[in-house]
Amino acid sequence: MRKIIKNANIILEDRIINNGSLIFSEAEAEIEKVAAYNLSEEAEMEVIDARGGYLAPGMIDTHIHGGGGFDTMDASAEALNKISKVLASHGVTSFLPTTMTMARDKIQAALQNIRQAKKEGTDGAQVLGTHVEGPFISPDYIGAQNSENLIKPELELLRDFYDVVEIVTMAPEVEGALALIEELNEHKITASAGHSAATYEEFQQAYQAGMDHFTHLYNAMTGLHHRKPGLVGAAFDSEATVELIVDLIHHHQAVDRFTIQAKGVDRVILVSDGMEATGLEEGEYELGGQKVIVKDGAARLESGVLAGSVLTLDQAVRNLLEVTDLTVPEIFRMVTLNPAEKLNLAHKLGRLKSGYQADLVLFDQNFKVQKTFVKGKEIRQ
Ligand SMILES: [Zn+2]
Predict the structure, then answer these.
(1) Which CATH entry fits the domain spanning 2-56+351-378: 3.40.1090.10, 1.10.1740.10, 3.30.479.30, 2.30.40.10?
(2) Which element (helix H / strand E) includes 253?
(3) Contact at 8 Å (CB) between 1 and 46?
(4) pLDDT (tens digit, 9 = 90+) per residue, 344-368?
(5) How many CB atoms lie within 10 A of CB 25?
(6) Which residues are part of the catalytic machinery?
(7) Where is the Amidohydrolase-related domain (predicted)?
(8) Ligand 1 centre from 34 Cα, in Å?
(9) What pLDDT, in 10s, does the model give residues 36-51?
(10) Which of 39, 98, 129, 139 has its CA 20 to 30 A from that of 195?
(11) pTM of the model
């Protein structure tokens, strides 16, 4: 069926079309036409009135562990399906289920399950591949990962899964890391610095080997000192992209502002780092086999260490609208086109443009999600 959305503020890369319209097809799963006026509907077209709300490309979450009571490490179709539906209800149309530092066989079971979900599809946001967070990380910046299963970089663990692995978060200073970074780079897989004690100098070597991304910048890495710039300094002194968790808990809002200003809106990718409590009430949960307490919007281990978040990308967008002077297209770039570019999918995802996949989110005027379409199909909860 062909559908038309009318009376929408359509968010493009560099501007907003006020009172525009967009035609898309569920059968073709594609956007047909975007217009700066209200196109006239044809017979048998479903008409959707946006009532002056905003229409954006579907958001892409490249770092998300769980939601709705399930975790990627559950390694079940049911888990990924539930997570996919929670995400869709928040305007996310595709994602990278993210693994944790656990035993080798558990990680591989999760990867196997992700491969299956990518092939067979889910009822909500689509699985594009996976982000592997650990186990090749530093014991000194363990965060909420489990140190018992931490291992040195080895090429064999992920080699059979290069068809689904998109991002690997690892500590570049650990013995064996450079060889792995080079191999990932050859397979167009992003090596991302995170959970790492690397110095500024150690990162330079990794950068030469192809590491060009930072996992949840600031959290679980060497900070900025004016004589020891660390990984944070290296992030600002390179062309690498950075993940940012804008829940206003992982860092101060001033840090969100200057990070985006210094890196530029095309170098920042907003992520949720969401765990299984995402979309549920506050209380006791689990992340990577450890107890997590969710209270006042923060997820923490019993020790008080932050353990992912219960953030969703629609909330991250609203947070940035509130605490920055960025324009709406600038903010949306960081949840749509930038992740699409990182995943080499910007030719079909991340833009509202004819020929692009019909992954769409319709917001009201306050940026609350009204409808989400994945490949042209409306996802109902
Ligand atoms: Zn994470």
Answers:
(1) 2.30.40.10
(2) helix 253-263
(3) yes
(4) 999 999 999 999 999 999 999 999 9
(5) 16
(6) 273
(7) 54-378
(8) 36
(9) 998 888 888 999 999 9
(10) 129
(11) 0.98
